[in-house]
Design brief:
Layout: H1 21-30, E1 34-39, E2 44-47, H2 49-55, H3 59-62, H4 79-86, E3 95-103, E4 109-120, E5 126-135, H5 137-149, E6 157-159, E7 162-164, H6 167-180, E8 186-189, H7 196-205, E9 214-218, H8 224-232, E10 233-234, E11 246-247, H9 249-252, E12 257-261, H10 268-280, E13 282-283, E14 292-293, E15 297-302, H11 306-311, H12 317-323, E16 326-329, H13 340-355, H14 364-372, H15 378-392, H16 405-408, H17 424-439, H18 444-451, H19 455-464
Parallel strand pairs: 8-15, 8-16, 9-12, 12-15
Antiparallel strand pairs: 1-2, 1-5, 3-4, 4-5, 6-7, 10-11, 13-14
Helix pairs in contact: 5-6, 6-7, 13-15, 17-18, 18-19
């Protein structure tokens, strides 16, 4: 609004802070929204400081100018307002809520969301309008990025080195993008092997810190006494063995991202020091007398139930709430079975490229087994299984028999035990299979040829009849 002539009360009149228009004008000016009024012709007659900050146009630039001033090549600006002043019959309750694009003074496209109320005189004639708007550009851009990730159903999606097409991963990618577009402290949760470090790295790579360092440390792998030095550094002589000054990870990651894996294993003593860093944004090397300001984005991860650790008093409650700002749960493989074939083929390509192997795919039965297995070790276990299969494979495709025994489930109890419950024909077939296997020294390929069946058929029948290799 119009600038009040400070200080208040210089005109000799008592100041009523509840009613004085100059005080109200100052209140409107400090609001984070743009506020304006126009006359019946659509010319600006008031323009607050919030509107100046959002658009770059100062009050003298716009007062008396038509509201079409904020239109651009790809921006309609306040065109809707002009239409309402000419024909307000479309208004519901006298207020119009709208999202539109305007062009700022420096040529930027600014997305705004606001409300407009058309004002009438006692005779029902339009005399002008008052409006308020906020800048939602960052939110719109974040949603556009998410929309680009959420491609048509069934198409492969990627975020950093993470891949998937399942609904569970689509939701994970959406939350990872939201995290990347902000500076919020992130907690990654989920079972071991689900890709929490890959997720942390992807957040960093898609953030405005991408050109700065990304550092990671596994907190459970380092004793407390050394962990503090690793995180915060130390000065020469701070303790026995400190022969020189050492920079900690927080200092090394200044301007970038620090990823603390297995945060649930950090002792309460270290939690206190981390809490201070998060609250004060400064660190102090062990043995130092002065603190240093740092700018580090913190991402933590755990496969433990942190809320339960708080109940057990193994984790400080204030520390828990400080790191548990924006949680992203990494789904286990059993919740994203649609992705198993995709991941298996991707891992196979990587393994064969690195090792010079000539394996170029999976048999249908092998893929079926991979998709049915529960994968308690998740993607890490899947990679290990495929590396094992590549070593075991004798042909150009991975078969069921190339997979580890626990994956192909030969070591599990048979669904149907070897018992008199079988028919005479089934018992006879079981004896023929055992005879062929023993004759060929348990070479399944030769045994299948002896029986005149495929290896897959032989495998199914061995499972059915609880026949296990010695």
């Amino acid at each position: 609004m119009a600038r009040p002539p400070p200080p208040y009360g210089d005109d000799g009149m008592d100041l009523d802070f509840h009613r004085d228009p100059r005080v109200l004008a100052d209140i409107v000016d400090v609001m984070p929204v743009g506020v304006f009024t126009v006359d019946r012709a659509g010319r600006f007659i008031a323009w607050n400081a919030g509107a100046e900050r959002i658009t770059g146009y100062r009050s003298p630039d716009v007062l008396g100018q038509p509201c079409r001033l904020l239109e651009g090549k790809n921006c309609k600006g306040f065109a809707r307002l002009v239409d309402l002043l000419q024909d307000p019959s479309d208004l519901q309750g006298g207020i119009c809520n709208q999202e539109c694009k305007i062009e700022s003074r420096d040529g930027r496209v600014v997305h705004i969301h606001g409300s407009i109320r058309v004002l009438f005189d006692p005779d029902g004639q339009v005399v002008g309008a008052v409006g308020a708007f906020m800048d939602v550009t960052a939110l719109v851009q974040a949603n556009e990025k998410i929309a680009r990730l959420e491609t048509r159903h069934g198409e492969v999606m990627r975020f950093g080195d993470l891949t998937g097409r399942s609904p569970a991963m689509r939701e994970t990618f959406r939350r990872l993008q939201l995290a990347a577009d902000s500076q919020v402290t992130v907690l990654l949760t989920g079972p071991s092997g689900t890709g929490k470090e890959l997720a942390a790295r992807a957040i960093h790579q898609h953030s405005d810190r991408a050109e700065r360092p990304f550092l990671a440390i596994n907190c459970s792998a380092i004793p407390d006494a050394l962990l503090e030095s690793e995180l915060f550094g130390h000065v020469k002589g701070a303790f026995t063995g400190a022969a020189a000054d050492k920079q900690g990870l927080f200092e090394a990651a200044d301007g970038g991202t620090l990823f603390l894996d297995e945060i649930g294993d950090v002792s309460p003593a270290v939690q206190v020091k981390l809490l201070r860093v998060l609250q004060e944004r400064e660190i102090r090397r062990i043995g130092a007398s002065r603190s240093k300001r740092i700018d580090v984005r913190l991402i933590t991860a755990t496969n433990r139930d942190l809320a339960e650790l708080v109940k057990q008093e193994k984790m400080r409650e204030d520390f828990y709430y400080r790191i548990h700002v924006f949680e992203i749960r990494m789904p286990p493989l059993r919740e994203r079975r649609e992705d198993i074939r995709l991941l298996a083929e991707q891992i196979l390509h990587e393994v064969c490229t690195a090792g010079g192997r000539a394996v170029n795919g999976f048999s249908r039965e092998a893929l079926h087994v991979l998709e049915q297995y529960d994968w308690p070790g998740n993607v890490r276990q899947l990679r290990n299984a495929i590396e094992h299969a590549c070593v075991s494979a004798t042909g150009d495709r991975i078969t069921v028999w190339d997979l580890p025994a626990e994956i192909r489930q030969l070591d599990r109890p048979a669904e149907r035990p070897a018992s008199p419950g079988w028919t005479p024909e089934e018992q006879s077939e079981r004896r023929r299979i055992l005879t062929a296997l023993e004759k060929t020294a348990w070479n399944r390929t030769r045994a299948a040829e002896e029986l005149g069946v495929s290896r897959v058929t032989l495998w199914k029948k061995m499972n059915r009849y609880a026949i296990r290799a010695p």
